[in-house]
């Protein structure tokens, strides 16, 4: 509430650094559904620009995270952005969308990429594995990112083994492209009315190591 009042004051006085800044209320309450629901009701009354669910994906079982989202979501304003903080795997994102979440952020695509762990539409690959030493296929044959268009799994693995920073750059580029493309596919399936089929096909597949 203090943040909302201060933002209003700065805008009114014309001294706001970013007049278009949005203010989100962040739902907390650990894994206690009653606390989370009560808190969500309180911050919903503030009529903020959007609402986030925080304090999840920090070690609790995945099903508990999903349950907390399901408990909180009915009390989140329908016309405001819903943001799940720090999540997550491709499967987590699909499950989050299924429960009414619009927006996500996570270090996973870039952090994992720097260790050679790459997301594909067929599952997760680890380029450090010896089986990719002479694999001339792109990281993901379905991907159109610059890395997949120009380089093979074998070449990028060679860069990792040689200690070349380029390996990390190429892999980060791929994983970020993959996540952006995944969100495009999710949005398209929602528009087409095929999201449930998409969810059933990809939720487990995209989180499976191959």
List the strand order in the largest sheet. Answer: 1-2-3-4
Overall spatial form: globular
- Write down the secondary-structure element order: HEHEHEHEHEEHHHH
Overall structural class, as computed from helix and strand content, comes to alpha/beta
Q: State the low-pLDDT regions, or none.
A: none
Estimated share of beta-strand residues: 5-15%
Description:
The protein has helices at 2-12, 33-44, 62-72, 90-98, 108-113, 146-150, 153-161, 165-192, 195-202, and strands at residues 24-27, 50-53, 81-84, 103-104, 117-120, 123-126. It is of the alpha/beta class and 210 residues long. The strands form two sheets. It has a four-stranded parallel sheet, with helices on one face. Helix 2 (33-44) runs parallel beside helix 3 and helix 4 (90-98) packs antiparallel against helix 9. The model has no long low-confidence stretch (mean pLDDT 96).
In short:
The chain has 210 residues and is α/β, with parallel strands linked by helices. Helices cover 47% and strands 10% of the residues.
Features:
single chain; 210 residues; alpha/beta; four-stranded parallel beta sheet; two-stranded antiparallel sheet; 9 helices; 6 strands; globular
Write the layout of secondary structure elements.
Elements lengths: L1 H11 L11 E4 L5 H12 L5 E4 L8 H11 L8 E4 L5 H9 L4 E2 L3 H6 L3 E4 L2 E4 L19 H5 L2 H9 L3 H28 L2 H8 L8
Helix pairs in contact: 2-3, 4-9, 7-8
